[in-house]
Amino acid sequence: MVVFLIVIIGLGYFIGNYYNNSGILYFAIIFSILMNVASYWWSDKIVLTMSGAKPADHDTYTDLYHIVENLSITAGLPMPKVYIVNDPSPNAFATGRDKEHAVVAVTTGLLQILNKTELEGVIAHELSHIGNRDILLSTVVVVLVGFISILANIFIRGGMGGKGRDDEKGGGVLAIIGIIFIILSPVIAKLIQLAISRKREFLADASGALLTRYPEGLASALQKISQASTPMKNANTATAHLFISNPFGLHAQAGGKGIANIFSTHPSVQARVEALIGKARDEQNQA
To answer: What distance separates the 2 farthest-apart alpha carbons in the chain?
Structure first.
């Protein structure tokens, strides 16, 4: 979060220097704070609307409610609201500003292909996101990445046309460095977001496995989800990292190293399964 704020302040400084207007820096700081506050309070409503999620009917999804309720008690968390996304692509996500206002959503496709132990593994993963406060972190990151991209686009579209400073200082080395930084800042911000997303997925996998005491359930669920070839109907790049698996082409996450993983919202399913199965073996050896 500190890095993000530094990037935003840096953007405001260089753009303000280019236009010879220090007010842009203050605007960038104030606006970033306001965006953080807005994302904190309304993140759940924004994400639920974008994904097309609807409240799950208790009578229709009784088993799902019981799983969420039992695991919430085990995790020491308040019962989150349960939502359903009418989509054949198997997936799930959690959102909300804190554990008292959390939401767990699953797709109809997920309920169709998973058995009870696998579904418990997925729900435990999502509840771990809530317990680890990942839902707050990830939603704030979404807003900050979007804001950085907007600032950079405004400058690139308007600033490169000769409207900025025309004195020697404005055309010096500092201005050149600033322009390069502004152009690269959306990429830098996106890489930070992706790195955060991958790390938190590994953590949620581990926490979820500890919650159910059965890592094989989540491992099996991840393997089934990765075999789905249909992307979600309302897949969106802004919220892709919130899901348990990439909503655009789930099978594409089953491998890849190096550069491929750097630009991925999720770790490869292979790496996640190996981590879970390895954890299960360690527990067996300790027993």
So the answer is: 73
Query: Whole-angstrom Cα distance, residue 143 to residue 38?
Result: 9
* Catalytic hit among 69, 126, 168, 274: 126
Q: What is the pLDDT of residue 125?
A: 97
Which helix or strand (DSSP H or E) is residue 55 part of? strand 54-55
**Closest of 277, 251, 243, 209 to residue 92, by C-alpha:** 243
Tens-place pLDDT, residues 123-181: 999 999 999 988 777 766 766 776 677 667 666 666 544 444 444 444 556 567 667 76
Please give the Cα distance from 60 to 147 (Å, whole number): 40
> How many other C-beta atoms lie within 10 A of the C-beta of residue 259?
8
What pTM did the predictor assign? 0.76
85 alpha-carbon distance from chain centroid: 18
Give ∠ CA 164-166-168 in degrees, rounded to 5: 130
**Distance, CA of 202 to CA of 14 (rounded, Å):** 36
Helix (H, G, I), strand (E, B) or coil at 24: helix
CA angle 220, 226, 232 (to 5 degrees): 125
What is the bridge-based pairing of β-strands 103-107 and 81-85?
parallel
Angle 221-252-110 from CA coordinates, rounded to 5°: 30
Question: Which pLDDT score, from 0 to 100, does residue 252 have?
Answer: 42
**Among 84, 85, 105, residue whose Cα is nearest residue 94:** 105
Q: Could you tell me the two tokens for 54?
A: 């609807």
CB 127 within 8 A of CB 71: yes
- 120 assigned to active site: no
What is the residue whose two structure tokens read 């099978």?
A: 251
| Nearest of 189, 204, 185, 68 to residue 132 by alpha carbon | 204
